[in-house]
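thought: fold this chain, then report.
action: predict
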Amino acid sequence: MKQLDYFFHPKSVAIIGASHTPGKIGYAILANFLGAGFERKIYPVNPDTTPILGLNVYKSVLDIKDDLDLVVIVVPAALVPDALKECVKKKIEAIVLISAGFSEIGEEGKKLEMKCKRIVEGVYTRIIGPNCVGIYDPYTRVDTLFLSRDRCGRPKEGNIAFISQSGAVGSTILDWLTEEDVGISKFISYGNAMDLDDCDFLEYLGDDKNTKVITVYLEGIEASGQKFMKIVKNVTKKKPIIILKAGKTEKGLKAVLSHTGSLGGSNKIYSAAFKQTGVIEVNTWEELFDFARGFSTQPLPQGNRIAIVTDGGGFGVLATDEADRQNLQLPEPSEKLKKEFAKVLPAYAVLHNPIDLTGDTNAERYRVVIEGCLKSNEFDGIIAITLFQVPTLEKEVVDQIVELHRKYDKPLIACAAGGKFSQELSRKLIQGGVPVFSTPERAVKTMGALIKYKAWLNK
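observation:
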């Protein structure tokens, strides 16, 4: 058993600072463990041993006779050193330190953080935090977040891991992912990284069977640059890492320092390191999760030849512009393919690339053209622009696209824009494993990310 497994697969959990008062952080964390359906042993720790939520309460972890795999600490910063000493004496290997008031507040906080760090030096105890919301694993139901479930959603099981230095950013994303019905494998908010850092989590997730793609919100690297590059390069050979680097401007750097105490570093240095190690760097939240959804659901393309299939000429033009910016090829279909398409398409349809099925299209046209492109050796991926407002386009087109996605080992990405009707059909595509984006540019950029990562792997 790897040591970080104690964080995500604990057989027992103690919460130091569990509170009797609803609304307090220590109460919320205990309630969230219970609300998540965590089926292992939970031990609240508080000087007041009155039961909390039906559970017996202990004055100290040393009073708990059973072994403990994971401890969550949520007490005022000044009390943390004593709590850590008791955990070390108990030989606890995994601690999530939620408490704030350390290096992020200045010199006094840094001294306290160093004192805590010295307590665990040379022992097996490992710490996530301080100044964090900790971890969430929908598979094992570990939930150290102090945000109530009615205010912050918890995503379902999936294959996207999310690492964030910022607890606030991370928890907001969890809420958004829940609303979007996107599943995750693990969520890690590590705050000041007093002990475990980004490198430790990347290395662990690189071997995690539930994780297919790793997404990261990064303010500054805590480990040495050389160590970071070595670990990241090893991980990107197994699965993609997508990073949104914050603190790129001078003012942004100052904000990072006051937030987690991290040193941001030169943006150019980070970007160069990312390119050398195969990291996919993004500039916005939108790109981070667009690309994550693409890698989460799609096979990697073998080349950069894509076909754009649309029922709206304007959207096809916009997709073509973005494909050109992404250096993607748009080869014209062969005469053999054109003859096959002509069996179902009207004479006025455009058989170049983008392939315009025109505004009177139906589900059968989409099926024949998309399948023709998928099974041919002429294209490596398909962008299907489905403007559902077309009156002749039956709802069955959704089922057909999902079926083609499952049948062929090539990426198939959709674009659909519109109101309630379009959103309902888009949700069905997403549930079938086909990512849908509201603009052609986002769809093409996502395809471009898949292609560029595959090209890096081929090197």
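thought: worth noting. The first strand starts at residue 12 and ends at 16.
final: tokens above.
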